[in-house]
Protein 1
Amino acid sequence: MKLKVYLTRIYRFSSAHRLYSPRLTEEENRAVFGNCGNPKGHGHNYILEVTISGIPDPLTGMVIRRQNLDRIVEDKIIQPWDHRHLDEDTADFKGNFSTGEVITRIVWEKLRSCLEGASLSKIKLWETSSSFFEYFEKDIETVL
């Protein structure tokens, strides 16, 4: 019997964003988003947990080489987003809200097809020490 193994790696990046909806008035935006709707934005030191799964390779015993996963996350997420204003400096958020929920979905979309035979199982994004967002392999299929 072959057992599926899960691997989680943790990454960090710092980004600014502004919570704002052009479909709301300024007063409504302030009521919904509070200080997070500051016109200049605000920042977070994000912690990103990426969990992949698969059957370990019979030659290496690994689901994926860790340095390959690190390179993929670096290229797709860290490099374009770290120390950037997500709404102003990245193409990923043009026409998208930069809420934690949407950031998590975009991470999922950017990583899910790049994992060398492994499967993306979960994304967990810590925005603060008391708030995080998660996408799961089973849940994502019903939402996308």
Note: Confidence is low (pLDDT under 50) at residues 140-144.
Protein 2
Amino acid sequence: MKIIIAGGGKVGSVLCAELSTEENDIILVEKNETRLESLINMNDISGIVGNGASYDIQQEAGVSNCDIFIAVTPEDEVNIMACILAKNLGASYTIARVRNPEYSNHFHYVRESLGVNLMINPELESARSIARLIKYPTVLGIQSFVDDKVELIEIEVGEQSPLANLPLNDFRPKYGDILVGAIRRKEETIIPSGQDRLQVGDHVYLMGESSILRKFYRKVRSQKNQIQSVLIIGGGRLTYYLLELLEESRMDIKVIERNREIAEELSAEFPNMEVILGDGTDQEVLQQEGIENYDAFISLTGVDEENIIASLYAAQQKVGKVITKVNRELLLKIFDSIGMESIITPKRVIANTILQFVRSLGNTSVSNVEALYRLADNQAEAIQFKVKATSRATNIQLEKLKTRENLLIAYIIRDKKLIIPSGQDVIKPNDRVIIITKEKYFDDIDDILK
């Protein structure tokens, strides 16, 4: 596919790296010549210096015959205008990153009337992820499939956990219809079999129906109480969306923001929540605000290093749940060694959504990609396919289906029935199938076959 990306910032650089390895023709449009050259040298792409919303630049890039145009510049208005222009020039599909809350409330109108196929708000999606994590204090990550009927959660096996040293053959008899989809053990990612055994320190990815996972969670969670109070540092867009989502939760919520104008705006918008003017990365300020008395601490400033340091301090103060926003993925490598918990990376959230959209166009005659999530430090993927009658994977018992290594067929969804498949089950046309794999870049269900 021919894909044109306008904007070579945090999200654009991730998209260049991910999409250029999928045999796509990638053209990056970026104003900053130095940044453009750097990304061209790092990835198998070509580029044009200029404004992605310029008619002349889009003509030069060949937008009129491109399959997908993606606008991820820092300015919402530029992204929307660039997509409208690209659509009128002939781009088959357009995607815009839009972050402003004023625009987010009108996504449907913009899509319908202006022809922008997909509008994504990374802060809003990240806020939704944080809100889900707050509901489950000991869960490190949550993703959902099939209209939230199936969930994938990440947990860590602690020394006192009933999961420690548990053989996987004993898992479902003990906890019900829950699938162990993947295990991250130090630097290694494992797609497990029944002969594997869970170990202390493992990050385990479990998949099951939402109601069954909730029962499991109550059985195995540590003694951490449900979250009743939250301390947030940083009052940017992500915080705004999170406060909207938590407004009806009856939690005791306090925000510390160093910018007076932003603090006053948040205070006026959310009168039932406490907003403090101050530096939330200053340990003295955190002590004055009683950090040790809160159930959860969330660091959402615009500086990764400040978020990491503040979260480490919160962990030292024995705050039960610590959530940290980190944009630079290179910094994520240090988290395993320093014992950090839940990490939110907005650019990864939006990149995964765009990758899902791109993959869904890859082979529409066999199946569509309906959901896609990266797991285990991007070493594995969980993908939901909608299967068509032309697929070669249909009507064959799974035990006879010759699939690739390091791959698990986790779920089959048939009408309203949720199936954790056995060797005797078959995939049928119109099924939704969720697979977990260490392979990357699958864009149809037949990619699972050898």
Note: The chain has four domains: 2-120, 126-220, 229-344, 353-448.
Protein 3
Amino acid sequence: MLFKIKSLSKKFGKTYVLKNINLEIENDEKIVIIGPSGSGKSTFLRCLSTLEETTSGEIFFQDIKLNSKNTKKIQGKIGMVFQNFQLFDNLTVLENITLAPVLNKIMSKEEAYKQARIYLKQIHLDKKENEYPNDLSGGQKQRVAIIRTLMMNPEVILFDEPTSALDPEMINEVLALIMEVSKKNITMIVVTHELNFAYDFATRVLFMDKGRIVEDGDKEQIFHHPKTDRLQQFLDNIK
């Protein structure tokens, strides 16, 4: 088992954003999380990645209890791709991709450059390695951000609405790369509003609302046979 989440709650001030979440996630699952804005989806990912401290409850990753004191034990194992790319504007594409694996001694600089160039060629950005993020389109930036995460050889990648900041014509190229990554033996958890992608990608779908997991099932059940009126309402609205 990869993640075991017990009675997870998170609040900001007096407001609970996550409420008593219990969940188990197995290796190599491809999970999509859907739900309305403000339902706690992004906060849930941030808790899994240790970017947010939980208010109560426990998260175990491979039997390691996650907290701010033991992040080094999981360093590089949990990768995250953000809505706004979070590339360093003062570093070239190649430097952005290779910085973390070299600093964390996962690869030598030579090894990192070699692997980065292989990835860049695969996503047709090999001619952009010496350019800076400001010279790239949004879709190119997000693909670079995904490759940067892959360079750490993670066991799980969390995607927080990876296409929400993109122009419509750039969305497909990012989703295509995520689909390609899904062929690897990596657990992936994606927050998205792209329902066609979600159906093609997911082995499991979670529907969140008001900080809770309302439904948890395979894509056929979630998209075609919802058990709750709330999920049916959400699907009707988003379609």
Note: The longest helix spans residues 109-122.
Protein 4
Amino acid sequence: MEARKPATIGLTVLAYVAATFGVQGASHFAVFAAHYAAIPIMRAEPVIAMGLGSMLIQGVLFALLFPAFQRGSVAVWDGVKFSWALGGFLASYIVLGEAGKYAIPSIASWIAVEGSVAFVQYTLFGVLLGLIHRRRAEPTGTHGLQ
């Protein structure tokens, strides 16, 4: 496993925060604003700093874990697959767990909105992750046999 470069870690975290804030912000404050307004447990004014803190933690974990699971070359598709795997883990709580805990007006609507938004978020971040970490496989051959 190769050492993680601080610039690559920072860029990955920045990409995660940008993708997440962009997609989730558009979802919550524009595209699905009425959906969220109908949920009685939602804050009128969200605490943005708490959301950013969560994004930073998640972004660091993505940045540290992705290289540990890669062997050889890394393509954009590898970033998408990894993002979908970890994103599915993270989103399962929001999509299913919260729908089962809170008195939301429509479970079906909640699952559709949260599931589709998570899919867009983790697909976009996966593309960025793959681009940031993209590298070619080292040539194989006669290392040390010359």
Note: The two ends are 25 Å apart (CA to CA).
